[in-house]
Amino acid sequence: MKELLRPSQEPASAVDIAAAYAWPEGTWTRAMMLTTLDGAIAGTDGLSGSISSATDRLIFSEVRRLADAVLVGAGTIRAERYNPMKARNEYQEARAAAGLQPAPVVVIVSGSLDLPWQDPLFHESAQQPIVLTHHHESSSSELRLAQAHADVQQIPDLEARTIIGAVHARGLSRIVCEGGPTLLTLMGAADLIDEYDITLAPILAGNGHGIVDGPLGEITRLRLAQAITDEGFVFAKYVR
Ligand SMILES: NC(=O)c1ccc[n+]([C@@H]2O[C@H](COP(=O)([O-])OP(=O)(O)OC[C@H]3O[C@@H](n4cnc5c(N)ncnc54)[C@H](OP(=O)(O)O)[C@@H]3O)[C@@H](O)[C@H]2O)c1
DSSP characters for 173-240? Predict the structure, then answer.
């Protein structure tokens, strides 16, 4: 059945964002990505904030509010310089009721271990960031530097299934994969993303960096579970 989405006359505040982005029971991996109409994942400054909106940021925070883990590629950490994952008082009751730690833990996938170790993310987060990497010689200076700032787990065959397996093995079930395109391509190609929360920004950026960087193998068709519109943005939820 075709449905014509019309821009809502109601402000986004009329939509119950918490209910719309509630976490399902059990293990669940959702991807959160923002794209312009021409598929760009960042503005001319190389950052996604410049193509975002207030409601986009609200949904992003809401998904993190009751997440166990924020899974992200090293490229995004190097570009976006994430703030620390701190426990917020107003979230504690709901997190405790869901059996969650006071704040989500960031899980970074990096082969090179070239990360901005001095950033507050690594020193002021409620939980020490986890870095998943491939095997490094124990004498390597990169490894020793990383181990001084993060909980480093070496996985010899570092690929999508072993990455998700390592996160689950730590008891982390609610995973929000915040990209970037390289990591999302890896996870998507292995069909390990249960839900794609894609924000379509009413912008043409013209810089040619799309949300998926390479072929995914088989074409996967997803079901549109929900769409919210606000100020020309479309907030779409696609599930397998
Ligand atoms: N619009 C959005 O929603 C959104 C979301 C996130 C990011 N972004 C943007 O995306 C850009 C970054 O994208 P990106 O694709 O370069 O970054 P990315 O996917 O965040 O990170 C890529 C890095 O992840 C590591 N990695 C991924 N798979 C690996 C594997 N199997 N084994 C070892 N390491 C692996 C590598 O790190 P090493 O290089 O350390 O080995 C690789 O260089 C930035 O401009 C950021 O602003 C946009």
Answer: -EEEE---HHHHHHHHHTT--SEEEEEEES----S---S--S--SS----EEEEEEEETTEEEEEEE-
Ligand 1 interacting residues, C-beta cut-off 6 A: 33-34, 41-42, 46-48, 72-76, 79-80, 109-112, 114, 134, 158-159, 178-183, 186
Sign of CA dihedral 208, 213, 218, 224: negative
Please, which residues have CB within 8 angstroms of residue 54's CB and are 6 or more apart in sequence? none
Please spell the DSSP secondary structure of 104-160, one letter per residue.
PEEEEE-SS----TTSTHHHHSSSPPEEEE----TT-HHHHHHHHHSEEEE-TT-SH
pLDDT-derived band at 215 (thresholds 50, 70, 90) equals: low
Retrieve residue 143's tokens: 């490894």
Query: What is the percent of the chain where pLDDT is above 90?
Result: 70
In the predicted structure, residue 121 carries a pLDDT above the cut 90: yes
The CA distances from residue 62 to 199, 229, 233, in Å, are: 14, 17, 17
Per CATH, the homologous superfamily of domain 16-239 is Dihydrofolate Reductase, subunit A (3.40.430.10)
Rounded distance from Cα 13 to ligand 1 centre (Å): 32
Q: Which atom of ligand 1 is nearest to the CA of 34?
A: 3
CA of 65 to the centre of ligand 1 (A): 23
